[in-house]
Amino acid sequence: MQVTRSEVLKLYKHLIQYSKSLTLTDPAYFRHRVATEFRKNKELTKPKDITFAYQKGEALLKRRSVFIRGSGPGGSAVNKNSNCVVLTHVPTGTVIKCHTSRCQDDNRQKARELLIAKLDEVLNGEDSVAAQRKRLETTKYKKSEYKKKKMAQMKSEWKKREGLA
Predict the structure, then answer these.
(1) How far apart are CA 53 and CA 152, in angstroms?
(2) Are residues 72 and 100 in the same domain?
(3) What's the domain of life for this entry (predicted)?
(4) Left, alpha or beta for 71 (phi > 0: left; psi -120 to 50: alpha)?
(5) Residues 114/96, Cβ–Cβ less than 8 Å
């Protein structure tokens, strides 16, 4: 596959437009990375190298899970490693970002669990697992409150009967 200069410029334009839609990553940082990568690839002369760089850029646009650099406490160990996971569910446009641990695999697994829970909530609504759990907790709480009130009432009646009140 031979890649023309116009196709490369079109890809660059799409990547810059994609950077404007980013919400969880700093768009300026992303644009800087894209510009640096294109400047680096300007000197490529072999068609094979140009095609590889082009496919790498296209893959970035199609990617559903992206690893970005984390932030927060932890110093250089956090700031230099790309272990923050951003998952995108393409049909619904749902985006999940997870950076709970330093391990990329743990973050990926946790992000997938969060994405499944979010999609379940969006698609099933009242019948989702989280909604069912919440319903069970509220009924349990109501029962315990009823028992407390009944016990307090019985205690006050007993005190009246015994003349302790």
Answers:
(1) 75
(2) yes
(3) Eukaryota
(4) beta
(5) yes
Helix axes 27-41, 47-62, angle to 10 degrees: 170
Query: Two tokens at 148?
Result: 């407390």
- Inter-CA distances, 41 with 12, 13, 101, 112, Å: 12, 15, 34, 34
Residue ending a domain, choose from 44, 63, 82: 63
Task: Domain of residue 37: give its range.
Answer: 1-63
CA–CA distance from 117 to each of 101, 107, 111, 127, 157 (Å)? 19, 15, 10, 12, 48
Q: How far is CA 126 from the centre of its chain?
A: 23
**What is the residue whose two structure tokens read 């230099």?**
80
Shared-domain flag, residues 58 and 2: yes
pTM of the model: 0.49
CATH of the domain at 69: 3.30.160.20
Confidence of residue 63 (pLDDT cuts 50, 70, 90): low
Any idea how long the chain is?
A: 165
> How many Å apart are CA 161 and CA 165, to the nearest integer?
9
